[in-house]
Amino acid sequence: MILRTKLLFALTLFFAIGLLTAYACTSKPAVIPANTPATQATPTPTPATPAKLTAEDLKKLRWIEGTWRGTGVNQPAFFERYRWENDTTLAVDSFENEKLEKVTRSCVSGA
Asked: DSSP states of 54-89 as a string?
């Protein structure tokens, strides 16, 4: 039971870090159709509220550090490297392929 609780906690933290990373690494402008009148108000996007993680929470995720090959349903394999820059900052590099020669995206997220 304790192992299951720890696993669920680790998965929750991993998910939260993933959300933080996705939020920090992407910015998509609002798409306004060409036929929208200029006088029409542009909707203001509501920013996502990032999870609040402490340094103690992040210490439990040290196992993520390293180079990983990810897979998914109907998705080709992807390759990422996670490294801690300090106690609260996680850097993520995405690679073009398994040779890990070309970084296609880098992101740094901090608590």
From this structure: -HHHHHTTGGG-EEEEEEETTEEEEEEEEEEEETTE
